[in-house]
Write a structure and sequence with these properties.
The protein is about 35% helix and about 15% strand. It has about 280 residues and is α/β, with parallel strands linked by helices. Strands 1-4-6-5-7-8-9-10 form an eight-stranded mixed β-sheet, sandwiched between helices. The chain has a two-stranded antiparallel sheet with strand order 2-3. The N and C termini lie far apart (about 40 Å). The relative contact order is 0.14.
């Protein structure tokens, strides 16, 4: 093990996981030009989050052919919306979700609607965790997930041409968003049929292992679990432990991916580079 990985404490990792909060405070930095493509827009109104007494910005990506077709499309719900489409709002580089999906659409391989939920800045560590943590506070992940399922999804399905069934509905995120995505598909297996669990921060939520044991996802659900070999602390052993929980539940190997990438670290460039492969596998027919 690299000595730096032994030195990375949960507190150090928390600083990495809470990076969007630090970014929000850095208003003295020069404004970056927007890199969002034409398919990206903001929902016109902030949405109320029941049970959390706050509102949230949501970002929307529509595939290039949306305006000129009558088709209905699968939907991917993603966390940390500020980091998905636009260098101007991202903390340390964007995921390039819009560039990746525009390219896949042009190739005729995949067309998706993507719904990006902005993170709650100083609330990020609690909103994306369903369990309390001694350092970060009471978990708000249940209410946050309920917001996606009971408020946001009905709104999107009502206003846009979606394929609303679970077979065409996915959730994805990284770090705390990876944890939140695994929780979402386990809590609402009747809503989500696929989950992209990138660099999940299981170390912030030890009860997650028992929860996933008690709430195995349906055998037809697809789980794409990703980790960088150089991510710190217990990140790698934790994802291996969770993959063993999933396997022990009887989940088919054909519907599970555990990918640990040599040399990869905890950052948007890593997640962006793995996005294409993950989406093609998750939405394969």
């Amino acid at each position: 093990m690299h000595p730096l990985r032994r030195l990375l404490s949960p507190l150090c990792l928390a600083m990495l996981l809470a990076a969007p909060v630090l970014a929000a405070a850095a208003d003295t930095a020069p404004r970056k030009a927007s890199t969002a493509l034409p398919g990206v827009s903001l929902l016109p109104e902030l949405l109320d989050m029941p049970g959390l007494d706050r509102k949230r910005q949501v970002r929307l990506y529509l595939p290039p052919g949306y305006a000129t077709s009558n088709k209905r499309y699968p939907v991917l719900y993603m966390h940390d919306g500020q980091n998905l489409f636009d260098e101007a709002t991202a903390y340390a580089g964007e995921w390039k979700v819009d560039e990746t999906l525009d390219a896949l659409a042009k190739e005729g391989r995949l067309e998706l609607i993507v719904v990006g939920i902005d993170n709650g800045l100083e609330k990020r560590m609690t909103e994306l965790n369903a369990w309390p943590h001694a350092q970060f506070g009471a978990g708000e992940g249940r209410e946050y997930t309920d917001f996606i399922v009971k408020v946001l999804k009905p709104l999107i399905d009502g206003k846009y041409r979606t394929l609303p069934d679970r077979a065409h509905t996915a959730v994805m995120g990284s770090s705390m968003g990876g944890l939140a995505s695994h929780y979402a598909i386990a809590r609402y297996p009747q809503v989500f049929g696929k989950a992209g669990v990138f660099s999940p921060a299981y170390w912030t939520a030890q009860p997650a292992f028992d929860f996933m044991t008690q709430h195995p996802v349906p055998k037809d659900a697809r789980l794409f679990m990703l980790m960088g070999e150089k991510e710190g602390g217990t990140m790698v052993p934790d994802v291996e432990r969770m993959a063993a929980v999933v396997k022990k539940s009887g989940h088919p190997a054909a519907n599970t991916v555990l990918k640990i990438v040599p040399g990869a670290e905890h950052n948007e460039a890593f997640w962006s580079g793995e996005l294409r492969e993950a989406l093609l596998w998750m939405f394969a027919q």
